[in-house]
Amino acid sequence: MRIATFNVNGVNGRLPVLLRWLEEARPDVVCLQELKAASARFPAAALEAAGYGAVWHGQKSWNGVAILARGAEPVQTRQDLPGVQDGESRYIEAAVEGVLVGCLYLPNGNPAPGPKFAAKLAWFDHLLNHAEEVLRHDVPVVLAGDFNVMPTDLDVHRPERWREDALCRPEVRAAFARLLAQGWTDSIRHLYPEDRIYTFWDYLRNAWERDAGLRLDHLLLSPSLLTRLKGAGVDRHVRGWEKASDHAPVWIAID
């Protein structure tokens, strides 16, 4: 089973890019973030024609998350994290072929410090609580999405320029470390502990051409899935397509 996460940065405006990648990569499960579309405008028919069932949690102009399954219908188990009541569409959860998949879009948090950064840390606390509860059930789980966190200096081009950014501040890295300490495994870093791997390149300053990227998109595995992990990677070339998202798809292969 190939499970991917892709911050599509506007599901309708970049639908041709998404459909092209789905046809090329044929992932079994896809977590999408930043739909930037109300639920009624989610392109379910186009995705169904491409062979994918879907559940989604939209929001006009901002945020929005979805889970796609090739040749299947995801069974939604949760919408929004327990305790989160901010009205933003940032989490959805579904069962697909015996795996529980949590798709998330964690707040950016800038400028930091400030109210937005405090809201990011509060959201992270809700995620930590839910992630811990899910692990207690001892089922195969993947938490996937745009975490808006660069866990280490290896995950950012020129880290000295990002010390005070909300994606890189010590409080955020500590929250991510607490998540891993619960028993989750960062799949990319597990397989490539020393490699400089990016999943995001800004549209400004020729970041893509210079490979001045960030690793923001992660797939975390529950303990029972770690032994089944067979591969992981970034479809980096998709970032170079016309009208591409500023993120590239990230994937894992599990047995």
From TrEMBL:
Residues that span the membrane, as ranges: none
Domain of life from the UniProt record: Bacteria
Cofactor: how and how many bound: Probably binds two magnesium or manganese ions per subunit.
Ranges of residues in domain Endonuclease/exonuclease/phosphatase: 4-247
GO biological process: DNA repair
SUPFAM superfamilies in alphabetical order: DNase I-like (SSF56219)
Site (Interaction with DNA substrate): 247
Record has Hydrolase as a keyword: yes
EC number(s) stated in the UniProt entry for this protein: 3.1.11.2
Site entry: Important for catalytic activity: 217
Entry annotation: catalytic residues: 105, 146, 247
Keywords of this entry: Hydrolase, Magnesium, Manganese, Metal-binding
Keyword Electron transport: no
One annotated GO molecular function: DNA binding
Residues with site note (Transition state stabilizer): 148
InterPro entries named among the record's database cross-references: AP_endonuc_1 (IPR004808), AP_endonuclease_F1_BS (IPR020847), Endo/exonu/phosph_ase_sf (IPR036691), Endo/exonuclease/phosphatase (IPR005135), ExoIII-like (IPR037493)
Binding positions (Mg(2+)): 7, 34, 146, 148, 246-247
Cofactor(s) the protein needs: Mg(2+); Mn(2+)
Family: Belongs to the DNA repair enzymes AP/ExoA family.
Name of the featured protein: Exodeoxyribonuclease III
